[in-house]
Amino acid sequence: MKRREVVLGAFALLAGLFAQVSGAKEFMLADVHPPGHLMIQVEERMATRLAETSKGALQIQLRHSGQMGGEGEAWEKVKAGSLDMARVNLAQLAKDMPAVKLLSLPYLFRSREHMWRVLGGDFGKRIRKEAEQNGAVVLTYYDSGTRSFYSSKRSIRSLADFKGLRIRVQDSPVYKDLISQLGATPVVLPYDKVADAFQSGEIDAAENNTPSYVSSGHYKIARYYSLDEHSSVPEVLVISKKTWSSLSEAEQKALEHAASDSSDFMKKLWADSETQSLAKAKKEGAVVVEKSQIAMAGIEGYAVKLYSKYITDSADLETVLAILRVK
Ligand code: GTR
After folding, report:
1. Which of 101, 123, 229 has its CA nearest to residue 177?
2. pTM (two decimals)
3. Residues 264-302: pLDDT tens digits?
4. What Gene3D superfamilies does the record point to (predicted)?
5. Residue 171 CB: number of other CB atoms within 10 A?
6. Protein residue with least CA distance to atom 1, ligand 1
């Protein structure tokens, strides 16, 4: 049987567990991306699938474009149980979860396939456990590609180009250290404040994957994009433990299933979304520097310092080695 048939079969089986209902349970889902970003399309599909499977009993109310605040705020609310669900970058959880600090280290993953296998194995279980200790349940992960630097000032081609730059980062200790190690100044800002910060001169650079560089409009302000691919931290969909424990087993299964189906859907479309975004940025004037044109040897030196800071004991070392050993 083909995978698509298996998936549809599972949805049909789950649907059998739901009776037609009059009142529905609604889950508020926060995301910072605007409509049009692949992530939002994927979440809309998840909402539709969930509503169909549950015969209308389970509904997702999607709040896109940061309507519920920045990602840090959304994560805090999920932990506290005052927001049902959030889709955030896993880096947002680094402050609270030691496993995520290790996962955020540069150059940890050899490839996207390697990353997915790590998330599906023991390390994935550890992340789930740490999330639960914080009051959240991990429903699924999504592709986020690799992140690269962009600047409004100049192309970054070597370590020397970082000197004096003020670079926006997500609120993660690893990202802040990464920028300092490169000789620049980290500026922590929520995603929706980045464009204004470029305009006002508060920052000279930021970093992100190509779909976000383009859908946010940053490519129009910070035209120099250097594909150094310094990190690949996936996106995560979390639900508050409070909401999760109020659901029946059938409801939990339907939600898990819709989430994992949406992640599979994203996996198929991600590469195209990267290619199309990069083509758009180039066509509209972004100056793109390929990885082969960047003096990576100098830049990669910072990774060594980060590894020695974040691998604090033999257990951390064993964890990182286990990640590297995953085939
Ligand atoms: C995007 C990511 C968001 C958020 C944003 C940021 O690529 O999808 O979840 O992390 O980057 O830089 O704040």
Report:
1. 101
2. 0.92
3. 999 999 999 999 999 999 999 999 999 999 988 778 888
4. Bacterial extracellular solute-binding protein, family 7
5. 18
6. 212
Pocket test for ligand 1, best of 32, 93, 225 (most atoms within 8 A of CB): 32
Which of 235, 238, 263, 266 should be mutated for ligand 1, with most atoms under 8 A from CB? Answer: 235
Question: Which tokens belong to 62?
Answer: 């999607």
Look at residue 12 and tell me whether its pLDDT is greater than 90: no
- Number of other CB atoms surrounding residue 281 within 10 Å: 21
Closest ligand 1 atom to 208 CA: 7
What's the start-to-end Cα distance of the chain, in Å?
A: 27
8 A C-beta contact, residue 306 and residue 178? yes
Ligand 1 environment, Cβ below 6 A: 32, 71, 88-89, 144, 170, 191, 208-209, 212, 235
- Whether the CB-CB separation of 143 and 270 falls below 8 Å is answered with yes
Question: Rounded distance, CA 131 to CA 129, Å?
Answer: 5
Atom of ligand 1 nearest to the CA of 170: 13
Residue entry with tokens 């620049």: 184
CATH architecture of 3-143+235-274: 3-Layer(aba) Sandwich (3.40)
Written as six digits, the tokens of 137 are 């349940």
Query: pLDDT for 30-86, tens place per residue?
Result: 999 999 899 999 999 999 999 999 999 999 999 999 999 999 999 999 999 999 999
- Provide the CA 231 distance to its chain's centre, in angstroms: 11
3-state helix, strand, coil in the chain (%, to 5): 55, 20, 30
CATH code: domain 147-232+277-325 is 3.40.190.170
Q: Which residues pair with 207 in a beta bridge?
A: 149
d(CA 177, CA 3): 42
